Input
Amino acid sequence: MALIIVKKSPANKLSEFLLKLALPQDKVIFIQDGVIFAIEKNLKGLVKEGVELFALKEDFIARGFEESESQIPLIDYEGWADLIERDEKIIS
Amino acid sequence: MHIAIQVNVPPYTNEDMDTAIHLAQILVNRGHKVSIFLFADSVLATNKLVKPMKIDRNIPLKLQELSDKGVEVHICGLCAQYRGITEDMKIEGSDFSGVPEMAALIYNSDRYINLLP
Amino acid sequence: MKKVLFAVYNSPVGSIWINEALRSAFGMYGEDLEPVVLFVNEAVLAVRKQCKPEIIGCLPLSITFKYLEKYNTQVYAIKEDLEKYSIKENEIEPHWNLKTIIKEELPDFVHSFDKVVFF
Output
């Protein structure tokens, strides 16, 4: 199982490349401009089934979004640290 | 747990140093050993001579504070030479190292978090 | 022995990342680490013989060749990305000793490494 960090916006092709690397049971955290993915309605369709998605709350709110706009769980840095502790492999 | 964070892009222009500093603070408070490896333009973040506006954050000072809390700050020495960062400019507690140190961190750390450029 | 992947997605010309990825890879042999390099997106332009950053005054890619030979470092490029830029097999600089990988195999390939660093 791996934790994939996506920090570039949906407009950057690399982000989609990284999302396609995710295998079932992997987790993806969106940080920095990557958090813009969180408002996409068809976000689940960009990854394989069984991939868990999270966005970093501070980065999301700082960009002017309301928490309710996120289609995926928002987590703070403590939540990100939990994911780091849990998954040995980090892809970024 | 030993957690290493690699940064590659310059401070102030990008969010990466801010992300790394915030994450390192949280991880060190949770009892982890944290190492920050500064590669390429990110070495500029160790220049204590920076003069940001008063309302803005002082990134080298924040790194210094992390170092005081036990976070290792490694600077790629060749990258620093390229950018004119010298011994007397760099923050206290940081060390010039290089790719051998990166290799040691990659080998020894339990988690290696690269913030891609 | 641990395996580490240096994957480059940035262009070989006008950015330093291919040189930095290779320099990093060569530094891994000081530990019990096996580095592998992967070229993604426009990074694959690096493998063509005619690709020369020195034309615009940047650091040449060729400075890495003697170390590639010395360490026999494995370099991969994504097949579909080579095709996208019409890079034919006979145009590839032999020093890269290039292997290709198809996109479908990438998730398992990337997960097979202990540590992954994108540039």
User: Anything to note?
Assistant: The CA atoms of residues 45 and 60 of chain B lie 5 Å apart.
